[in-house]
Amino acid sequence: MRVLSGGGRRGAAIRGVLGAIGQGLEFACSAIADLCLPRSCAQCQRLGSLSRGSWCGPCRESLARIAPPLCPGCGRPFPDSSTSSDHLCGDCLVTGFHFDSARSAVIHTGTVRTRVHQFKFGGQLKWTPCLVELLEEAYGQWGIAVPDLIVPVPLHIKRLRQRGFNQAGVLAGELGRKIKTPVSVCALFRKNVTQPQTSLKRGERLKNVKGAFEIADSGKVRGRRILLIDDVFTTGTTLSECARVLKKRGGAGEVHALTVTRALPD
Ligand SMILES: [Zn+2]
Ligand SMILES: [Zn+2]
C-alpha cells in the first residue's frame, strides 16, 4: 500500500475539498438554471421549445406511441397487423395473465428507452416528469374505471439500498399526485431477491418471479380496484405475478397494469 507523505496527504485533501466544492457548485448551478432558464425538451433538448409538458411539439409527435390495433387484454400492439381491429394476442389466449388488463404509453425504443435507462440505472430523477407525462396520457386514453389505489411493482430491500430509490415507486407517487389517487408503496413487497429478468425467456421469467411477492397489508387492497405501475412491460410476468398476489393473497377486486414503455418481442 502506498503511504502518502505529508505533501501527498495535503494534495489529496485539497483535491477532495476542490472536488466537493465542484460538485456543490454543479448542483447549485443546475438548481439555479432550473429556476431561471426555460426548461428544455426531453428529446431534442432545445431550450425554450416547450409550450406545455416535457416534450416539444415535433418530439411529442415523433414518440412511438402504442395505438390500435392492439390486444385488449395485455395491450400488446400489432403494428404490422393486416387487420385493423383489436384481437387477443397469443400470450393472452394460451397462458393468460393475472391482471385484468394492461397498457403502456410507448414502445420501448429511441429516446424514451434512453430516458428510462438514465432514470432507472443512472439515478437521473430529472426525467421523472417526462415519463410520468406519458403514463398520465396513456391512463387518460385507456378508459378504465378510476382506481381506488395505485401500487408500484416493489423492489427488494437489498436492491432498494443499492439503487437508492424504486423507479416504479417514484413514477407511481407522481402519477397518484396528478390523477389524485392514493398510492401505497408498502401494500405489496418483494420478499425474494430475483435474478434480473432481462436475460431470461418467458418461461424462465415465470419461474424466477413465482413466490417473489407478498402482501404487507391486505386491509389496503381487499376489494379494491388497483392500478399497478412499472417502468417497462417486457413479458408481463412480473406484473402478472404482482396481480396474482394482490388478488389471491390480498383479495384485490381488480388489478390493471400501466407502464411507460412496452418492449416488443424480436
Ligand atoms: Zn423536442
Ligand atoms: Zn395480450
Keywords, separated by commas or semicolons:
266 residues; alpha/beta; Rossmann fold; 2 domains; 10 helices; 6 strands; 42% helix; 13% strand; disordered N terminus; binds zinc ion
Work out the strand percent.
5-15%
CATH topology of the largest domain: Rossmann fold
Query: For the residues shown, what is the average pLDDT?
Result: 86
Q: How many runs of DSSP E, i.e. beta strands?
A: 6
Hetero ligands: zinc ion
How is this fold's topology laid out?
Layout: H1 6-36, H2 57-62, H3 90-94, E1 101-107, H4 110-121, H5 128-142, E2 149-152, H6 157-163, H7 167-179, E3 188-190, H8 202-209, E4 213-215, H9 218-221, E5 225-233, H10 237-248, E6 254-262
Parallel strand pairs: 1-6, 2-5, 5-6
Antiparallel strand pairs: 3-4
Helix pairs in contact: 5-7
The site of one zinc ion has 8 residues, from helix 2.
What report would you give on this structure?
With 266 residues, the chain is an alpha/beta fold. It has two domains: 1-37; 57-262, Rossmann fold. 42% of the residues lie in helices and 13% in strands. The chain contains ten helices and six strands. The chain has helices at residues 6-36, 57-62, 90-94, 110-121, 128-142, 157-163, 167-179, 202-209, 218-221, 237-248, and strands at residues 101-107, 149-152, 188-190, 213-215, 225-233, 254-262. A four-stranded parallel beta sheet has the order 1-6-5-2. Strands 3-4 form a two-stranded antiparallel sheet. α10 links the parallel β5 and β6 (254-262). α5 (128-142) crosses α7. The longest helix is centred in the N-terminal third of the chain and has 31 residues, at 6-36. The radius of gyration is 21 Å and the shape is globular. The N and C termini lie far apart (50 Å). Mean pLDDT is 86; it is low at 1-24. The structure holds zinc ion (2 copies).
